[in-house]
Amino acid sequence: MLNGWKMGNSVLGVDLALREFALEDAGRVRELVDDPAVSRWTSNIPHPYTRQDAVDWITQTARDPEKHPFAVVAGEEIVACVSYWPDGDDIEVGYWVGRDYWGQGVCTRGLQLMLARPDFPRDRRVIARVMVGNERSERVLQKCGFEFSADCRCPQGDKLVDARFFVRTGT
Q1: Which domain holds residue 32?
Q2: If you ran DSSP here, which 8-state letter would residue 82 be given?
Q3: Residue 35 is part of a domain; what is its CATH number?
Q4: Second label for 55, Cα 20 to 30 Å away, from 47, 68, 106, 169?
């Protein structure tokens, strides 16, 4: 798989893989995140979310060497996104999953795949912020070796909301 990395693990009855996003993915990205139940738990995904929003996001992240979003693909279909970026001296991770795929291990496996990539930075602390009330996301992080560290705030659109700060303790 060009620009992708695959690890045998059956979720949804097929192996999941990571790959870079392409402009052709804009319609599928819009389909997955134009859902208030998905955008509710994210810092930067507005609702409603248009195809043009997806085109802009794919284009902007492709140009930014500090952004590393990966499509989580089941078979040939995008079902989620995992990403990482620098946050000061740390590396922060984030993710979203299409609602039809919640509770099926997609996000946990996608995050594990990203953390195991040979090019994932290993020389920095890995962190995540989860909005208060998003217990599913907290469980994903815990399954991937993160531990709760402190209460914090995180951006959501143009405001700050209560959140929980996690640090990865395992490698």
Answers
A1: 5-122
A2: E
A3: 3.40.630.30
A4: 106
Of 1-5, 24-28, 93-97, 109-113, where does mean pLDDT reach its minimum?
1-5
Kindly state the tokens that stand for 171: 């490698």
Where helices occur in 72-171 by DSSP H, the ranges are 106-116, 135-143
Q: How confident is the model at residue 13 (pLDDT cuts 50, 70, 90)?
A: confident
pLDDT of residue 170: 62
Tally of domains within the chain: 1
Q: Please give the pLDDT value at position 158.
A: 87
**How far apart, in whole angstroms, are the C-alpha atoms of residue 80 and residue 65?**
21
Residue 45 and residue 34: Cα distance in Å, rounded? 9
Tokens in use for 13? 């009855």
Phi, psi of 39 (to 5 degrees): -65, -25
Are 81 and 69 in contact by the 8 Å Cβ rule? The answer is yes
Residue 101: φ, ψ to 5° = -110, 5
Does residue 37 sit within a domain?
Answer: yes
Any domain includes 154:
no
Contacts of 70 (CB under 8 A, 6+ apart): 18, 19, 20, 21, 81, 82, 83, 110, 114
